[in-house]
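We were asked to recover a plausible sequence for a given structure. The inputs and outputs are reproduced exactly as logged, with field labels preserved.

PROBLEM: sequence recovery
POSITIONS: 402
GIVEN STRUCTURE:
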């Protein structure tokens, strides 16, 4: 690093002001060159501690130290950028002719401000949590070290993608793709604010896409997960997550709607065809209505949690609000315990529900679309991506919904 020094001095060689004060300057020395820079602070001679090179007034001391620290920070950033530190650059910075480069801002700090703006715009907290998860993974990838906006590059994004594929993360293409989409959104926001940043997602880096077939549990795998229920205390987080996941497998609600589900949304007595009991609510994601019947196993989970039905018709939440990242981490451990080789997330429960409902001919594709809260039939067909006749035949004699 280039040698530099910053020393305050009272310019008694200047003409005394009418109020009896003299201006305080900073004597800055870099590579043998020296210049005196005004601070805008004025002090009477008797209020200047010449030994400590500082005002005796504590408030003025703080103001002077803040100005010195700002210059030191600027010089340190020049060094990090491997730029040559010159007296001219520092003088320009102090005079305001050269503004502090916003590209030297922490990417994580900008990310947090981006999330705060999103929250103020009314973005759902569940979506904020997804962005937070990406930020946390990026922080782990960096080893806790700072990443500046100017550090964003194709090589960094490629290294991050390798990290996502590694043993520590084991991300599927769809999960990796989601994290890359989050980073791309933040980078595009930086560009909209006229901050110079490299955007590797401009076509140089291709965001990984999910596989054509979404992950779901077959009947044996779902039974294996159900078989874990007796292994945990009912107050444990693993049991609570397992119940949430199984409930979604039996009714098809999204994670956000499971977390939002209140007892007032549950009617255990309403008859829906051959099924007694229904959930009716406004979806968190789409704000559209969703109505799904309660089959035997989903009904039994609700009865277990209802405290003898005393919670029915109340504003109390049915399930504990556990973050999606915690839920998916626990699910990874549960599938390992159940001997399931698939990498599942909570969303796989919706695909499990859709596939098994068709297999068992519990309802047709039109009814299923209504239960899933889809606006179009095409969306429902994406959830059941297999030949329907073959799917029905494979599960014709098996009853998994009770």
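RECOVERED SEQUENCE:
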């Amino acid at each position: 690093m280039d040698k530099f020094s910053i020393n305050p001095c009272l310019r008694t060689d200047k003409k005394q002001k009418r109020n009896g004060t003299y201006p305080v300057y900073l004597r800055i020395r870099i590579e043998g060159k020296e210049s005196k820079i005004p601070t805008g602070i004025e002090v009477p001679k008797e209020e200047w501690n010449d030994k400590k090179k500082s005002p005796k007034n504590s408030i003025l001391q703080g103001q002077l130290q803040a100005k010195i620290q700002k210059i030191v920070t600027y010089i340190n950033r020049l060094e990090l950028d491997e730029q040559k530190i010159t007296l001219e650059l520092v003088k320009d910075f102090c005079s305001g002719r050269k503004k502090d480069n916003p590209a030297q801002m922490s990417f994580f700090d900008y990310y947090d401000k981006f999330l705060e703006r999103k929250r103020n715009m009314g973005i759902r907290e569940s979506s904020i949590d997804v962005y937070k998860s990406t930020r946390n993974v990026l922080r782990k990838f960096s080893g806790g070290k700072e990443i500046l906006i100017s550090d964003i590059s194709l090589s960094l994004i490629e290294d991050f993608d390798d990290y996502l594929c590694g043993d520590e993360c084991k991300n599927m293409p769809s999960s990796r793709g989601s994290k890359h989409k989050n980073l791309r959104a933040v980078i595009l926001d930086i560009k909209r604010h006229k901050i110079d940043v490299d955007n590797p997602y401009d076509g140089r880096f291709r965001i990984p896409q999910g596989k054509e077939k979404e992950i779901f549990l077959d009947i044996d795998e779902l039974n294996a997960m159900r078989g874990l229920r007796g292994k945990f205390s009912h107050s444990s987080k693993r049991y609570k997550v397992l119940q949430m996941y199984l409930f979604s497998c039996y009714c098809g609600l999204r994670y956000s709607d499971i977390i939002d589900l209140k007892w007032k949304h549950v009617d255990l007595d309403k008859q829906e065809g051959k099924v007694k009991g229904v959930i009716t609510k406004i979806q968190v994601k789409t704000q559209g209505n969703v109505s799904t019947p309660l089959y035997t196993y989903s009904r039994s989970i609700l009865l277990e949690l209802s405290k003898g039905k005393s919670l029915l018709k109340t504003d109390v939440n049915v399930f504990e609000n556990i973050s999606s990242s915690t839920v998916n981490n626990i699910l990874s451990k549960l599938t390992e315990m159940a001997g399931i080789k698939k990498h599942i997330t909570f969303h796989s429960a919706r695909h499990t529900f859709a596939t098994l409902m068709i297999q068992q001919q519990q309802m047709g594709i039109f009814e299923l679309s209504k239960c899933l809260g889809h606006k179009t039939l095409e969306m429902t067909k994406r959830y059941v991506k297999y030949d329907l006749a073959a799917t029905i035949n494979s599960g014709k004699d098996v009853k998994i919904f009770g």
